[in-house]
Every structure is written in C-alpha cells, then in structure tokens.
Design goal:
The chain is of the alpha/beta class and 560 residues long. It is built from 22 helices and 14 strands.
C-alpha cells in the first residue's frame, strides 16, 4: 500500500464532511462512494488552481451528463486569449497506487475538448451546471478569443498508458492543449507543509556582494543547469512565497520563448532576454577570498520572482533528457540573492509585490495587511461578522466574509459595475482596488453588499423553480438591483448606510431578501427584452451580454 495514497484517502474523509451539504443540494450526490470521488476532484481543483473553497466547488460539474468532464474552470480574457482547465477524476478504493489512468477517460476528455470549443457542435444531453460553463467558453470563442486548454487527468494511481498517449497525439490538438497527470504523489508534494530549504548555489563569473542595513545582497549569474538541478531537488517548495502558479510550458508565450531560446543555436543570449530571478533567504555564506565562480550556501531559500522561468527551465530539461540531450552549459540567468532579517515579513511581501508587478497578478494576499483592510476587519467584527482578509483552508462560516467576495459584492452592488465584478476579478485588488475600497467604504456597506450578493449567488448555483436560465450568469447584475431596493427602503443614500442603521438594513434583507431577488430578476428580464426585442436569445448570447455593460443603462432606467 502506497503511503501517499493513504494520506490523500485520510484527507478525503474530512473533505467529504466539508462538501456534503453542497454536494447534495447542488449536484444531488449523496452516495458515499460518489461523494468520495467528488471530494477527490474537489481537492485536485483546489490544489492545482489555488482557488478558494467556494470557487473550487463552483468548478465541479460531476453528475449525470457530465460529458466526461468532472470540473471546468474558465479564466478571464487576457491578450486575446483565455485559459480553460478541464478535470476528470478516477478514484479507486484500492490504495496500492498501481492502476493507470483509464484510456476511455482520456478519450472522453478528447471528445469533450473537440465539442466544447466548437460553438457549432451539438453537445447532446449534458447537465445544466456544465452547460452554462460550456456556453460561457463558447461565447468567448465566438468573440474571437483563442482558448488555451489545460486537461488534467486525476487519479490515485499511475499515469495513462501508451495507448492513451497515442490517442492524445492522434487528436492533433498541438500546443493549444496541454495534458497533465495529477495523482496522490503530486498532491502530497504540493500540500506538504513548508520546510526550510538549504542548498548551495554555484554561480559563474564575477558577482557583486554587499552588506547593507542588516541585510546582504548578492548579484551574479547562475547556469540554467544549476536551476534545473535546484528545481529537481526541491520542486514547488521553492515557490511558497511566489504569487504565481506555474502556467505551463505550452500555450504561454513567455514560457514558450524561454524554451525556444534554450533550444536555439545561441543559448548564451538567454541571459540578455530574461529579467532574472529574485531569491530571498535567512542567510548566505561564500568564500570572500575568491574573485569569481562563487559557491553560495543559502539557508531557508525561496524564489519570490522568476518561478515561471525556473519551472520552465526544469520542464525543458526533462524534455531534452527524453531526447538524450541536456541543457546548454553556456546558458545563464541573472540572479539576485537577498539575505533579509528573519522577522521582517513586510519587506519580503513588498519585494514579492514589486518584482512581480510587470504582469497582472492576484494581489489579495499582498493587500491583506493594508491599513484599510485591517480597519474593515475591525469594523466588520463589531457588527458580528468575520472578515477573512487572509486565506485559510478552513470552510467559511455563514458569518464569514472573504476579501474576494467583499470586492465582488461591493463592485457590483454599490459601485454599479456588475460586469467588472464578475469578469475583472484579476484587477479587483489591482487597478480597481482604490475604487472598490474607497475611503468612504465602511464595514456595514461591505456586509450588506455581501448578504445581497450571497442571495443572488445561491440562486446562480441552485436555481429554483421560476428562475430563468439567465440567472446562471446574472448574479452580479441582480445583486446591483437588489442594492438599489434596499437603499430605497432605508430611505437614504449609500453614504447614510453605516453601523447606526445596520440592524435595520440587516432586518430588511432577512425579511425581504427573496422579494428583492424576484424583483431584480424581473428587472433583468425587462432589460433583456428592451435590448433584444422579442427575438429568441441563445445561451451563448446571454453569456456574452453579461460580460458587457449594455444592460447597465437599461437597468438604471428601471423604476425601483
């Protein structure tokens, strides 16, 4: 029996309890074995995509008519492309870990990919939860965006066999679809608690080393061969402080460029084409009597910028090894090693933020210690709720409000930008941060927006009798209209909503929240008819409509 399979099996026991109610309500899954399989897929989604608990469950599509796709996640558009991740899970009761991922599972995923991203292809009978996600992806394709697909096959055994690999190659998807295998070993490797990493870095050529302000800095060059060895020995444990998950070798232009340079006739130019790596550590030592080619011994090493580069170098190294080749010895990359005080966590966060700011990233974690976030935490606590400004692995309670939900709710309900709330999440803690978390925003406003948004989201996840299909896409628009009705019943403007009239506002939502929802839903229905007339609206059109702001002006004209 494999030890890692036992670890994951034990973990699934707790996860089943965590998702049992949602699995029953949203997916109609109550059977013990099916629930365990669902828990495994949920764990894979949460771990591989680094999502919050609610977002992870929202990806699940397992059930009757799942089209061979147990989970589906669609990312926002970026540079004319959008990323989609598909999961299929195969969990076996036997914990020996010796069974290959089934070939028919791979063939089902191939068939799903062929149909999902062809807007004209018939889907057949699939469940509504998957259907709305597929039509969202198809509407993006119709808008001219290019899908980059990540197909993840998950099991508690071995990778697929040669016949399944041949089926992947026959599919002819090329670099647009990447295939990954995730099993108990991969999951345990990621889930392991962070352990300090100490190693020796072998630099090449001259280096600048200087002590400053109780810290030490080393700037030099390191061979890519050394980076590949470092990643092989320690893997993603080196990236605990890095704010980006690895984006993959194929379908990512930057990472493809790294591979192409390393495989070119002039790999020595890699140094000039790459921005370099930023490493932090508790301490490093070197032989000061040397003039070059230093061996730097580091303690508690972490890569805070350049994780994509390091993982890509390692993946290219693996590819070359399969071809009986190796990385070029003359390819090097700039490296900055910072020894920082052990008790100065803030400076590490600031370095991570600054060195990663060249591309949009999820900044929720880096904003967690902002003064505004701390003030809101205290304000919300006084109202009887818990503001989770830092991510945790524990399930959210009804009284908990996460920063992600708060940002989405406030942007939709009070800032009246529902399309940005749902589809610009990458910028909620970036370009849109100051607009969302303005100086005038208080705890009462966050709680009320979140309660209204929660009602609309509950209908999105679990549509009730009488809810039309657009409810699956319109939760932020509906929440905006609900907010307008709440302010009207309070008899004031948003600026008047604070801790003093919070009990009254909360009572109104508790007593009339569902009525607000129904009225807001009717507003959307009327606005859609005003926009499209009496013509039939396809689900793809609906998805595209709620990505834009066309309806906002129509809804502002609605009588509340």
């Amino acid at each position: 029996m494999n030890l890692n399979t036992q670890i994951i099996d034990q973990r699934l026991t707790g996860i089943q309890d965590e998702i049992r109610v949602q699995a029953c309500d949203e997916l109609n899954i109550t059977d013990g074995s099916r629930l365990k399989s669902l828990a495994f897929v949920y764990l894979c989604v949460k771990t591989m995509l680094d999502l919050d608990i609610e977002d992870s469950f929202d990806c699940l599509t397992d059930g009757g008519g799942d089209f061979g796709v147990d989970a589906l996640h669609v990312m926002e558009e970026k540079d004319g492309e959008f990323d989609v991740t598909l999961f299929q899970g195969k969990y076996k009761k036997a914990l020996d870990g010796n069974s290959n991922f089934e070939q028919n599972g791979i063939e089902a995923m191939i068939n799903a990919i062929r149909h999902i991203f062809d807007p004209s292809a018939a889907l057949g009978k699939i469940n509504e939860r998957l259907y709305v996600k597929v039509e969202q992806a198809r509407s993006l394709v119709r808008d001219g965006l290019i899908p980059r697909v990540r197909a993840i096959a998950c099991n508690n055994g071995l990778k697929w066999n040669k016949e399944a690999q041949a089926a992947i190659e026959r599919a002819g998807f090329g670099d647009q679809v990447t295939w990954e295998h995730v099993n108990h070993d991969v999951l345990v490797g990621i889930l392991q608690r962070f352990k300090p990493i100490s190693d020796t870095l072998r630099l090449t050529g001259k280096a600048i080393i200087e002590d400053m302000n109780f810290s030490r800095v080393c700037i030099g060059r390191i061979p890519v061969l050394e980076i590949a060895t470092l990643m092989k020995n320690h893997g993603e444990k080196l990236l605990e402080r890095n704010i980006r998950r690895y984006l993959g070798l194929h379908g990512n232009r930057v990472n493809e460029g790294i591979r192409d340079t390393l495989s070119s006739s002039k790999p020595e130019n890699f140094y000039f084409f790459n921005n370099g790596l930023t490493l932090v550590c508790d301490d490093f030592a070197y032989n000061a009597l040397q003039s070059s080619d230093f061996q730097v011994k580091v303690e508690n090493l972490q890569i805070v910028n350049g994780g994509q580069t390091c993982m890509t170098i390692y993946k290219v190294s693996e590819e070359l090894q399969r071809l009986n080749k190796s990385l070029p010895t003359d390819a090097t990359v700039l490296v900055r090693i910072y020894k920082l005080p052990k008790d100065n966590e803030d400076i590490i966060l600031q370095i991570t933020h600054a060195t990663n700011s060249q591309n949009p990233v999820d900044l929720k974690d880096l904003r967690a210690n902002d003064e505004k976030q701390q003030q809101l935490e205290q304000s919300i606590q006084e109202l009887g709720y818990t503001y989770r400004r830092k991510r945790t692995d524990s399930a959210a309670k009804p009284s908990d409000i996460t920063t992600g939900v708060a940002a989405e709710a406030v942007l939709a309900v009070w800032r009246q930008a529902p399309h940005q709330a749902k589809f610009f999440t990458r910028e909620h803690f970036g370009k849109l941060y100051n607009g969302i978390f303005s100086d005038s925003l208080n705890g009462a406003q966050i709680v009320m927006a979140s309660l209204l948004y929660r009602i609309a989201e509950n209908h999105r996840r679990r549509p009730q009798e009488g809810d039309p299909i657009f409810v699956r896409y319109a939760s932020c628009f509906i929440a905006m209209q609900m907010g307008r009705r709440l302010l009207k019943d309070l008899g004031g403007e948003l600026s008047a909503l604070d801790h003093r009239n919070f009990p009254q506002a909360k009572q109104l939502v508790e007593e009339h929240g569902e009525n607000y929802f129904v009225a807001a839903r009717n507003d959307i229905d009327i606005a859609l008819k005003a926009l499209y007339g009496e013509q039939e609206i396809s689900v793809q059109q609906l998805s595209a409509t709620f990505r834009r702001g066309d309806l906002i002006e129509k809804l502002k004209q609605a009588t509340v």
